[in-house]
Structures are given as structure tokens and as C-alpha cells.
């Protein structure tokens, strides 16, 4: 009887000395999205841990062919604690990131085996749930997780993408955008995040990370009560204006690189769109031959939270502010944000033809359910979530 490929594959932990170059090659040869003859390949810029090193508990597993030592698959995982709206329960969550199987070895069960083993690692390290995000159109990934691994739909989100450098509206003279000190940002977020369906508990770590460029508040100027600098008590936000939006910006450059390969005619474009997830390129309304032919990165707008009646103009000011910041940065060509479908700010994202939208789905599985009975902390739908910039 012929051996199945799975009998000839061993799954083991990534070895920095042995595997860095080979995994880099695997990532670069493993397309994660296509559009009209253009394939997208990722490049971790020599650091295969770039997407998980923010988390103290992380792992990377590789699938190796026993006969040749060739690496044909990779998966990354990390563990974090998140807060949920269901009674403020805290949940230890394992996140699956960067799953790839070499095209020549797909549909042989290697992806499933990698997922099973990364879940095992997560369970061993105390995770109650496992989680992953994937583009709605990624059938292979959706089937793998829902049909084969029993993941459930937790949340539907929209990724908004806008190239910088296009004609844009000036920020209205009636609007003021103030930068918060990190301690102010931490207290404001801590007091507001509890209203979200899902949020990271270590917001202070995120805001203190060097990739986080800062946190700002946008509000109408005539509401001069927003006097942040003289604020004595960082916990007291009773004098916030009637309408305001808080936002933070994450600079993803220099950590993750994508490469675009055009098949007709064969031509290679090298880009440094840094830390872009597998889903953003297929929807970019940018001429590949022009903007993507040169290295570029993007800014990720995160931690958006707004209160009040007049959020539309404030959201416009934030897009303009972030685009302006991106334009001042070498290599930045895109601004991206991601919001849950029922996040109150989603309907206020400026509607213009240069903004592309991608449907994203978050899947979750209770991996200890069979031990502890029915745990419904994360049973979805979670429509108003904090999108962690470290996972994007
Ligand atoms: C998604 C991916 C990792 C799957 O790896 P794989 O080794 O081919 O997966 P498996 O062979 O273990 O397949 C398990 C199941 O997933 C589903 N599946 C896998 N590929 C599929 C495809 N192309 N179309 C539809 N379903 C598919 C099937 O249900 C399959 O079971 P079956 O073969 O018994 O029908 C692989 O296609 C890949 O690397 N894609 C590019 C990167 C990517 O999209 N990663 C996921 C990001 S979250």
C-alpha cells in the first residue's frame, strides 16, 4: 500500500538557525491572494517571528518532509487574554496566524495537521478558545476551519483601505485634533473598552509598543472643555465634548514585506507593504504597475472609538489626518482600518470611490468546552470589537 504524504511529514517547532532562510523561501513561494494574473507573496524580511513576537507566549510550527528535509508548511500561534462583553469575562485566547502550505503539497492534509497541532499547543498553554481571521473569499481557509475543525463565525468585519497621495479634503477649521499622552490614552481606553464585545487586556502594551505612533482625539473646536493638558485626574473624563473620536496609529513598516508577481508577462515587483495581512491586496484599487512597483508600507488606524451625534465629520478629519501623516512618511502608500459591522463608527467611514472594502470574518472555537461544559463567553455575534494592530 502507498504511504500517505502525512506519514512522510513531521511537524516540529521552528528552529531559528536551521529554518529561517527556508521558511522565508516558503513564504515567498506561497501565494496568499490573486487578482487578474497578479499573485501576492509574503516576505518576513528575515524575521519569521515578526507577527508573533509581540506576545510573550508564541510558537511557530513547520511541516517537514522526512525524506528530503524540505519544509512544506508553516503556522504561527500566540496566546493573549481578551475581555468580552458577556459579563466582562476574561478569556485566554489562542490566535492562529500565518498558516501556509506549499502549493505543490496542498490538499493532502498538511494544513489540517498544522492546525490540529497548533491547537494542541494552545490547549497545553491554557487557551480556552482558538481564533483566526480570514478573508470571506478564502474558500480553502474557510472550509479548513469550519468544515474540518468546527470553528464558528464570531464576527463579521470590514477592512477599509485607501491609498494616500490622492486629492483629499482638508481638515475642517472647526475641528481640533489633540495628541494624548500615553497615560491619558491608556486611561481613556481602559474606561471605554469595556463597552466592546471583544478587546485586548494589555492595551497599555500596545500603546507603548514602538510601532504605535500615538493616540489622538478629534472633536469640534468650539467645545473648549477638552483641556487634556491641565487634566489632573486621568480617570475623570466627565468633561469630554458632546462628540469626539479617539484613534491610534500603528506603523507597520520594516516588519513584513509583500512581493507582487505579475504573470503576464512575467515581471517581478518588489514591495515593502509591511505587515499587510493576506487579504488586502486583491481589493486595492491601485495600478500594480505604478504604485506597487516601488517599495511601500501603510499606516493602520486602530482603537477607533467615538461618542456623540456628529461623528461623520470627525471620521473624515481622522482619515485626512492619517493620510497626511502617511504622505509625510517615506514608503507609506496606504491607510487601512478595520471595524466590526455593528461598530457605531463603521457607517461614518467616509464614502468615496478611493476607499476599498474587504469583508473579513473572525472564527472561534471553544477548545476546552468538552472538559468544562458549555462556556458561552464567546458565542458571537461580536460586531463591535477592538481590532488588535498586532494581529493585523
Ligand atoms: C489554506 C491552506 C493552508 C490549506 O492547506 P492544505 O494543506 O491544502 O489543507 P488540507 O489539505 O489540510 O485541507 C483540509 C480541508 O480544507 C479544505 N480545503 C483545503 N483547500 C481547499 C480548497 N482549495 N478549496 C476548498 N476547500 C479546501 C477542505 O475541506 C480540506 O479537506 P478535504 O481535502 O478533505 O476536502 C492552503 O490552501 C494555503 O496555504 N493557502 C494560502 C495561504 C492561506 O490562505 N492561508 C490561510 C490564511 S488564514
UniProtKB/TrEMBL annotation:
InterPro entries from the UniProt entry: Acyl_CoA_acyltransferase (IPR016181), GNAT_dom (IPR000182), Plant_NAT (IPR052810)
Domain of life according to the entry: Eukaryota
Domain N-acetyltransferase positions: 9-210
SUPFAM superfamilies the record matches: Acyl-CoA N-acyltransferases (Nat) (SSF55729)
Molecular function GO terms recorded: acyltransferase activity, transferring groups other than amino-acyl groups
PANTHER family: ACYL-COA N-ACYLTRANSFERASES (NAT) SUPERFAMILY PROTEIN, N-ACETYLTRANSFERASE HLS1-LIKE-RELATED
Name this polypeptide is given: Acyl-CoA N-acyltransferases superfamily protein
Species assigned in the record: Quillaja saponaria (Soap bark tree)
Amino acid at each position: 500500500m502507498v504511504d500517505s504524504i502525512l506519514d512522510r511529514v513531521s511537524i516540529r517547532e521552528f528552529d531559528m538557525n536551521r529554518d529561517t532562510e527556508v521558511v522565508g523561501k516558503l513564504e515567498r513561494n506561497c501565494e496568499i491572494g490573486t487578482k487578474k494574473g497578479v499573485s501576492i507573496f509574503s516576505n518576513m524580511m528575515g524575521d519569521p517571528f515578526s507577527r508573533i513576537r509581540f506576545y510573550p507566549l508564541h510558537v511557530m510550527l513547520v511541516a517537514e518532509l522526512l525524506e528530503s528535509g524540505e519544509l512544506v508548511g508553516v503556522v504561527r500561534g500566540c496566546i493573549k487574554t481578551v475581555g468580552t462583553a458577556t459579563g466582562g469575562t476574561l478569556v485566554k485566547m489562542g490566535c492562529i496566524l500565518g498558516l501556509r502550505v506549499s502549493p505543490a503539497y496542498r490538499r493532502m492534509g498538511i494544513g489540517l495537521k498544522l492546525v490540529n497541532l497548533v491547537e494542541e499547543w494552545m490547549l497545553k498553554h491554557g487557551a480556552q478558545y482558538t481564533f483566526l481571521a480570514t478573508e470571506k473569499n478564502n474558500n480553502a481557509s474557510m472550509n479548513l476551519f469550519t468544515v474540518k475543525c468546527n470553528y464558528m463565525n464570531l464576527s463579521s468585519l470590514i477592512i477599509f483601505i485607501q491609498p494616500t497621495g490622492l486629492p483629499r479634503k482638508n481638515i475642517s477649521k472647526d475641528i481640533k485634533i489633540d495628541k494624548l499622552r500615553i497615560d491619558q490614552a491608556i486611561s481613556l481606553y481602559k474606561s471605554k473598552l469595556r463597552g466592546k464585545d471583544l478587546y485586548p487586556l494589555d492595551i497599555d502594551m500596545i500603546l507603548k509598543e514602538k510601532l504605535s505612533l500615538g493616540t489622538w482625539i478629534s472633536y469640534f473646536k468650539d467645545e473648549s472643555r477638552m483641556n487634556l493638558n491641565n487634566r489632573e485626574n486621568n480617570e475623570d473624563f466627565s468633561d469630554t465634548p458632546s462628540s469626539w473620536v479617539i484613534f491610534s496609529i500603528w506603523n507597520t513598516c520594516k516588519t513584513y514585506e509583500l512581493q507582487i508577481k505579475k504573470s503576464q508577462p512575467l515581471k517581478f515587483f518588489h514591495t515593502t507593504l509591511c505587515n499587510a495581512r493576506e487579504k488586502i491586496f486583491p481589493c486595492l484599487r491601485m495600478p500594480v504597475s505604478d504604485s506597487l512597483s516601488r517599495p511601500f508600507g501603510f499606516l493602520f488606524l486602530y482603537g477607533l472609538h467615538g461618542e456623540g451625534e456628529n461623528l461623520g465629520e470627525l471620521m473624515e478629519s481622522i482619515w485626512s489626518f492619517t493620510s497626511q501623516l502617511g504622505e509625510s512618511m517615506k514608503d507609506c502608500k496606504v491607510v487601512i482600518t478595520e471595524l466590526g459591522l455593528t461598530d457605531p463608527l463603521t457607517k461614518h467611514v467616509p464614502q468615496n470611490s478611493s476607499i476599498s472594502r474587504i469583508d473579513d470574518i473572525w472564527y472561534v472555537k471553544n477548545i476546552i468546552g468538552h472538559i468544562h461544559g458549555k462556556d458561552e463567553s464567546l458565542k458571537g455575534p461580536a460586531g463591535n470589537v477592538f481590532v488588535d494592530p498586532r494581529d493585523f
